[in-house]
Design goal:
By secondary structure, the protein is mainly α. The protein is built from 11 helices and 2 strands, in the order H-H-H-E-E-H-H-H-H-H-H-H-H. It folds into 2 domains: 67 residues, Orthogonal Bundle (Arc Repressor Mutant, subunit A), CATH 1.10.10.10; 143 residues, Four Helix Bundle (Hemerythrin (Met), subunit A) (Up-down Bundle). Helix 5 packs parallel to helix 9 and helix 6 packs antiparallel against helix 7.
């Protein structure tokens, strides 16, 4: 008889969500490895203490996420040991400080690489996007401003010629969108101004690798310092 897995309290979640979490846990902890066939539907239902319809729906969701692969007439196999949707959810729910530390890491490396690999067209594109970004509007389209800011930073990553870094930044920019909005709406936090972004472009244009990295870090550092100074309540909001 397969071992029984205890479902977490599901006051806010459906049985399907709980089943998905437990299946994901078996995969992430290495109990079910990539390429391995998972227990059959009836066994899973017994292990998870749920109905077979619940198991079927959980497997369907994880198959859609490419974590599992259903092979007709053969069984269901582990395809990935990480669920991209779950990674995005966890990043989204991380603290504001964690978000800006991640921004600092990605944007510093992106600027460093851009300074060594950029071409004339890259610099021209950065100039155009920086002008389009402008200063933060005091009253108006904050969402549009954030999109323009993201477009600028994506272009910095593109100037570095590393496609993986570009896609990673795009991916996390979605998760960081909420924290960026929160930071800009919070008047107690320092605001990364146009001049700070200008220094990044200037260093990239001058092929100053260290200067570009320092300028990129300087955009985020005042916010991180403020979050550290104001303590956990600010960092977690």
């Amino acid at each position: 008889m397969p071992p029984t897995l205890n479902l977490p309290q599901a006051a806010r979640r459906s049985l399907v969500d709980s089943a998905i979490e437990l299946i994901r846990m078996q995969i992430e902890t290495g109990r079910w490895k990539v390429g391995a066939r998972i227990p059959k539907e009836a066994e899973l239902a017994e292990m998870l203490q749920v109905g077979r319809n619940t198991v079927r729906e959980a497997v369907r969701v994880l198959s859609h996420a490419k974590v599992l692969e259903v092979r007709q007439g053969d069984g269901t196999y582990v395809r990935l040991n990480v669920d991209p949707a779950e990674v995005m959810r966890r990043v989204t729910h991380a603290s504001l400080r964690d978000h800006f530390e991640l921004r600092a890491l990605l944007e510093t490396e992106a600027a460093r690489r851009a300074a060594t690999r950029r071409d004339v067209d890259d610099v021209r594109r950065l100039e155009e996007l920086l002008e389009a970004r402008g200063e933060r509007p005091q009253d108006g389209d904050l969402a549009g401003f954030i999109e323009r800011d993201i477009a600028f930073h994506v272009a910095v990553a593109q100037s570095g010629g590393n496609a993986a870094l570009v896609e990673l930044y795009r991916y996390f920019a979605l998760a960081l969108h909420g924290s960026t909005s929160a930071a800009l709406a919070d008047r107690t936090l320092p605001e990364p101004d146009l001049a700070a972004h200008r220094r990044v472009v200037d260093a990239i244009r001058d092929r100053d690798e260290a200067g570009a990295a320092e300028a990129a870090r300087a955009i985020v550092s005042p916010i991180l310092d403020a979050l550290e100074r104001d303590g956990p309540a600010a960092a977690d909001h």
